[in-house]
Specification:
Arc Repressor Mutant, subunit A; alpha+beta; about 150 residues; four-stranded antiparallel sheet; single chain; Alpha-Beta Plaits; elongated
Length: about 150
Amino acid sequence: MQMDTIDKKLLQLLQHDTKKTTKELSLKLNLSVTAVYERIKKLEREGIIAKYVVLLDKEKVGKNFVVFCHLKLIQHTKEFLTKFESEVVQLKEVLECHHVSGDYDYILKIAVKNMEEYREFLVTKLTTLEHIGSTHSTFMISEVKNTTVLEL
């Protein structure tokens, strides 16, 4: 799908606040409410808008101990990668899992309450997964930037 400048502006507005009504959006875009509604539906059908979410304050919900866990598998076979990926997506503490190049195979972003909860997660869940060779944990000191907005 080819997006025009109005589609891009609409997506920017939605990324900043999905609770804006089609009427509010229509005023900002100089379009009718119906036109805005139809554009949103088209962007959803095309998969450009994948889903709508609520972003929580990690501190207020007691999950502000953030860990970046670098992980190596014992082998790089398709079977080992597939098995690991199918298991790691089931771990509720893991917010993100990225298959990367370099010294490690994966980087996980994990959110837990504190160091004790991370240790429990590491010992009882993560290191029990098959094919893990080694892990290296880095703990977040402070969050400088965290955005979900993609510039178009």
